[in-house]
Amino acid sequence: MTETLVQEPGTEPVKPSRPSGEPLLVVDELTKHFPVRSGMFGKTGLVRAVDGVSFSVQPGETLGLVGESGCGKTTTGRMLVRLLEPTSGKITFEGKDISHAKGAGLRQLRQDMQIIFQDPYASLNPRHTVGRIVAMPLQVNGINPPGGVKKRVQELLELVGLNPEHYNRYPHEFSGGQRQRIGVARALALKPKIIVADEPVSALDVSIQAQVINLLRGLQRDLDLAFVFIAHDLAVVRHFCQRIGVMYLGKLVEIGDRNSIYERPAHPYTRALLSAVPDVTKMGASGRIRLEGDVPTPLNPPSGCRFRTRCWKAQEICATQEPPLTIKPNGTTAACHFPEEGAIK
Amino acid sequence: MTAPASAPNSPTTTDKDPYLRVNDLRVQFPTEDGVVKAVDGVSFSVERGKTLGIVGESGSGKSVTSLTIMGLHNTKRARISGEILVGGRNVVGMTEEQTRRLRGRDMAMIFQDPLSALHPYYKVGAQIAEAYKVHHPNASKAEAKKRAVDMLGRVGIPQPARRADSYPHEFSGGMRQRAMIAMALVNDPDLLIADEPTTALDVTVQAQILDLLEDLQREFNSAIIMITHDLGVVAQVADEVLVMYGGRAVEFGTVEQVMRRPQHPYTWGLLASVPSLHGDSDADLVPIKGNPPSLINLPTGCAFHPRCRYAGRNGDRSFTEVPELHQVLERGHLVACHLSEADRTKFYAEDIAPSAGVAQ
Amino acid sequence: MVRFITRRVLVGVATIIAISIIVFGLFFAVPSSPAKVMCGKNCDPASIAAVETRLGLREPIVEQYTSFMKGVFVGRTYAPGTAFERQCDAPCLGYSFRNDEPVTAILKRTVPVTISIVVGAAILWLLIGVSLGMISALRRGTLFDKIAIGISLTGASMQVFFFGLILLYGLVYATGWLDFPSYTPFTENPLKWAQGLILPWVTLGFLNSAIYARLSRAQMLETLSEDYVRTARAKGLPLGRVYTKHALRAAITPIVTIAGLDIGASLGGTFITETIFGLRGLGKETVEAVNFLNLPIVVATVLLAAVFIVVANLIVDLLYAVIDPRVRLS
Ligand SMILES: Nc1ncnc2c1ncn2[C@@H]1O[C@H](COP(=O)(O)OP(=O)(O)OP(=O)(O)O)[C@@H](O)[C@H]1O
Ligand SMILES: Nc1ncnc2c1ncn2[C@@H]1O[C@H](COP(=O)(O)OP(=O)(O)O)[C@@H](O)[C@H]1O
Ligand code: SF4
Ligand code: SF4
Ligand SMILES: [Mg+2]
Ligand SMILES: [Mg+2]
């Protein structure tokens, strides 16, 4: 990926988040196919959950992955942290090929890469105290921080805005937002370089969601963490990510820096997605792009461009030739034969 | 809160009689831990052809309010008082048989998760036909079926005659919600309650469903209550907005009033918390501190005071006295807050208006 | 659908073959020779050899197994070319080591007993257990519910032999209200058939009713809290229709599954019930055969039990597909 981040003049100092050096994480043609049997009597098929996705993340950079349900965001995220084995493709972390890392290599990787899950209720063991939950990664990896485990855990709790005295409490004593903070503390325990966050705020109420977004933003800035931030809420992603990738039916259809993606996206799908968001600042539904129909099944995706069944600009070539990801005049990298130009009205 | 002070009697609505009128509704559930005051003195009204948006965080009493209007609570388990006038008839205190006759015919409801709300074992068409038949006992099976197919076509299901014979699991999420809407509208109800109808759907599908509801409302001229926690959805579809907190109404007004000139600190907090597609993306969001209250043990005075930046700006009334809804600024704009008019205007101008979330 | 049935039948056949091999193998691992057992105390090697020849026990085990399978499907000839030669027509399951009676004849006598016990009891426990459970779910928290829960808790914690013996003592020995259970074929005299089996039915039926009542109550309560039940009410359906058409159908599905498997398993033999009430059913026959190392009967009864279970599984799967469209081929 070669797009450049448009740095607005006069904003914060340039972070070490841009191309200067080696990318932290490079994903190349990552693919995951699940063999499935539909129903009890069905024949077997192949769910093309993720189909040749490529992107890279610089140290300290935040990349957002957005798209509708089932487009492969979670599957991608799980492959990155190696909770799922990729069907094909390559994941490179700090120059090392980790696509099929095992044993010691995987353990080292688990220290550098952490994941935060969507459901703050299901992801914490209800029978363990908060202290034990947060200390778990340290213990599993046999790490004894200076000052002891307990001190480190209390520091972590404080870092995520929880009272260190909550050390001996159980998860059910906490609200959804607080539980998500516990999950964040656990993820930070090993001082990772990158965190994959899969819909970390989707299950939370708006007021609590804002608290957690602010927390993550602060941590990202202070600890210079890289993030792969998965979400379906475009407004949330806009507030958190410097660069955004848009996925549709297992494919990355557009990727670019925040301003280009939100102000002048090239891919028709990105435009449709943005215009569908009911925004608090916008009254009524005027000027909206109406997409017809539903997302097709990943068991049998359309030929050529996968968006063509719902695209208002589709031509014959869209059915026969898959559009490659190329840099478009607007500055983003998009996969479309007839990219949009100019700013969104 | 005294009922007559609120919207129903405001001059804007005198020429048309509202179809639904809720007066001082209270719903309590006795539980082992104590009494849950799920709804605590709420009043509002909705006219035919208009949409009332009810917003609030989870647990603020939105669903309980809607289920109470539909008479779906177990009267043995829930203590209900107040008045719910549906086309002039008070639903509170009606027998099960009396409310049953209204349900599905005069008032209908669609739910958040259309997959679990449809019966997995029956064909979609049959489920809709059943809803028709129960209120049209003289209709033949074929008539009911035809009506079901008609409705499926009206809500935009392609090849409705064929898809009527599908089971819910064979539909996509958006089609299921369309089917739910077809079922709710099959008897031309005058009141439609939609409880988070698009929360489980993707944005592009959500947009389709909201458009559909708007089109159908124009066609059927029904009153709609749109319950949601998404302020964007409210801004898009509502004519009037009711903001709920801790089982009470804290702000009521037209969508312009509530979304563009909000006057309650909680509404301010909500709007400042919501990330937007416009405005400064580098600015931090301004969350409301703390967590929503427990409805068993509501804070004294204004239930919002532990989270409110402005609590205490008016002596200790916020801590001791429950604020009543009263009119501010404009006619029909009601707010339950002790702040003085001057203070409110000042805080709004200084702290709120410049921030991202408020509609421009 | 056809493919599904074929696949399941094939899997079932494979299961039964595997079981038959295991049972065959196990009994040959037992050191003492059945021929010795049969021939009595003072037995010279020559007569043992004769018995072994007659029963075909001198052949290698693999051959014995294949001849057995051949016998089941096409019939076989025992000890061909010797003085003991005899023809056994399909389905041939061999002869009892004890009294040379054909195993098929034994099965013909014992299987109807077990089927009669199980079918009668199952009707009882399904009718009583399921309706009790459903009614208490609909009246949760009422006195009826509490009593029903109490009874089913008691029933579920009781053992068959304990409850059976109490009944036997109370209704037969102490009061003489009922005759001691006996088996009369249904075709001979239906009334006597039912009279003779009433005690085992009540015993088995009551205990299983307790279990099924708890199960159905839990299922029904879960179903009543489903969103689609709320939808049915929101449509304006009368409560009766909501309960029967919408809730009951969904609640009953898992019960059908469990009942099918339970009945299938019981058909393989209800040893304790049969023993308490002195009925010669499949269960009693099997246990006795095991004690006597009566290999042909053990193999036959174990295989038959396996067939019952496999068939019950198949029926349950098919029923499931009929009831729940989600598992049907789309
Ligand atoms: N273990 C699995 N077996 C079969 N299919 C799977 C499996 N896991 C995921 N899928 C399918 O792969 C596709 C992508 O799933 P994924 O969970 O990555 O979507 P997502 O973008 O995270 O969606 P959401 O927004 O709903 O979380 C979906 O069609 C999903 O049904
Ligand atoms: N049947 C019930 N028994 C006890 N408490 C209930 C019951 N139904 C709802 N509640 C409580 O009432 C409050 C309001 O719930 P609800 O109206 O569902 O909130 P929401 O605004 O998210 O729709 C919650 O605290 C909820 O736990
Ligand atoms: S390639 Fe064709 S179908 Fe695909 S998005 Fe572009 S115009 Fe639409
Ligand atoms: S009454 Fe007081 S605490 Fe409540 S919203 Fe107004 S200022 Fe805040
Ligand atoms: Mg996901
Ligand atoms: Mg709700």
Overview of the structural elements:
Chain A: It holds the Pfam family oligo_HPY. Chain A: Keywords: ATP-binding, Nucleotide-binding, Transport. Chain A: This is Peptide/nickel transport system ATP-binding protein. Chain A: One of its GO terms (biological process) is transmembrane transport. The complex is a heterotrimer of chains A (345), B (360) and C (330). Chain A is built from ten helices and twelve strands. Chain A has 345 residues and is an alpha/beta fold. In chain A, the strands form two sheets. An eight-stranded mixed sheet of chain A has the order 6-7-8-3-9-10-12-11, sandwiched between helices. A four-stranded antiparallel sheet of chain A has the order 2-1-4-5. In chain A, a hairpin with a 6-residue loop joins strand 1 and strand 2. Chain B has an eight-stranded mixed sheet with strand order 6-7-8-3-9-10-13-12, with helices on both faces. Chain B starts with 19 loop residues before the first strand and ends in an 8-residue tail after the last helix. With 360 residues, chain B is an alpha/beta fold. Among the domains of chain B are: 74 residues, no CATH class; 89 residues, no CATH class. Chain B has 13 helices and 13 strands. In chain B, helix 4 packs parallel to helix 7. Chain C folds into two domains: 62 residues, no CATH class; 226 residues, MetI-like fold (Orthogonal Bundle), CATH 1.10.3720. In chain C, strands 1-2 form a two-stranded antiparallel sheet. In chain C, a hairpin with a 7-residue loop joins strand 1 and strand 2. In chain C, helix 9 packs antiparallel against helix 10 and helix 12 packs antiparallel against helix 13. The longest helix of chain C has 36 residues. Chain C is globular, with a radius of gyration of 25 Å. The model of chain C has no long low-confidence stretch (mean pLDDT 86). The complex binds adenosine-5'-triphosphate, adenosine-5'-diphosphate, iron/sulfur cluster (SF4) (2 copies) and magnesium ion (2 copies). The site of one iron/sulfur cluster has 12 residues of chain A, from loops.
Ordered list of secondary-structure elements with their pairings:
The complex is a heterotrimer of chains A (345), B (360) and C (330).
Chain A: E1 25-37, E2 44-57, E3 62-66, H1 73-80, E4 88-93, E5 96-97, H2 103-112, E6 113-116, H3 130-140, H4 149-159, H5 176-188, E7 194-198, H6 206-223, E8 226-230, H7 234-240, E9 243-248, E10 251-257, H8 258-263, H9 268-276, H10 316-320, E11 326-327, E12 333-334
Parallel strand pairs in A: 3-8, 3-9, 6-7, 7-8
Antiparallel strand pairs in A: 1-2, 1-4, 4-5, 9-10, 10-12, 11-12
Chain B: E1 20-31, E2 34-46, E3 51-55, H1 62-69, E4 79-86, E5 89-90, H2 96-102, E6 107-110, H3 114-117, H4 124-135, H5 141-154, H6 160-163, H7 173-185, E7 191-195, H8 203-220, E8 223-228, H9 231-237, E9 240-245, E10 248-254, H10 255-260, H11 265-273, E11 313-316, H12 317-320, E12 326-327, E13 334-335, H13 341-352
Helix pairs in contact in B: 4-5, 4-7, 5-7, 7-8
Chain C: H1 2-29, H2 34-39, H3 45-54, H4 61-74, E1 76-78, E2 86-88, H5 103-138, H6 143-156, H7 160-174, H8 190-224, H9 227-234, H10 239-267, H11 271-276, H12 282-291, H13 295-323
Antiparallel strand pairs in C: 1-2
Helix pairs in contact in C: 1-13, 5-6, 5-8, 5-10, 6-8, 7-8, 8-10, 9-10, 10-13, 12-13
The structure holds adenosine-5'-triphosphate, adenosine-5'-diphosphate, iron/sulfur cluster (2 copies) and magnesium ion (2 copies).
One magnesium ion is lined by residues 62-63, 196 of chain B.
